[in-house]
Request: fold
Amino acid sequence: MIKIFIIATFCRLLVIFFSQNISNFDLLSYKKIGELTLQKINIYPQIAKIHHPYFPFYLYIEALAILFNNRFGINYIFFLKFINLIFDLGIIYLIYLLSNKNLKTTLFYSLNPISILIFFFHGQFDALPLFFILLSIYFLKQKKELFSILSYSFAFLAKTWPILFVMPIFKKIKNKKI
Reply:
C-alpha cells in the first residue's frame, strides 16, 4: 500500500507542478470568489450565485487559498490543487479499505488518468465530495451511522451532486431517528 501511495502522490504532484501556471474559467472563478469572500462582502457573495453554483463550504477553502497567496506567496492554484491531493489520497485509502484491502483495485484508481486530469490539471474539487461519500459508506460498514450522516453532509456542502446518493445511504441507516 505504501508503494501505491508513493506512486499516486508522485503522479499527482507531477501534474500539479506542471499545471500550476495553467488557468481556466473555473480556477479564475475560484480566485474571484475567494477574493470576495475575504473582503467579507457577504458569506455567499452575489457574484457567487452567477459564477459559483456550489454551497458555501468550498468558499472558505478558496478564501484561504487567496489569503495564503497574498500573505505568503503560495500560488492559489497550487494550494487548491494540493487540497485536492490530500482528499484524493484519502479516497485511495478508503478504496483500499472498502475493497477489503484489494491492492489491484486501489492501484487501478490510483493510476486512473481521468481523476488525475480532472482534480490536478483542471482543478475541479470533486475529490472533496467523493471523499466524504466514501467515508460515509465506510462509517456505515462500521455501523457508525451518526458519523456516516455527518460525513455525507460534508459531501453535500461541497457540491450538489451527492444528493444522488441520499436514498441508498438513507436505506442503509437502521436508526432513522438520527
Summary: The chain has a mean pLDDT of 85. The CA atoms of residues 25 and 51 lie 9 Å apart.
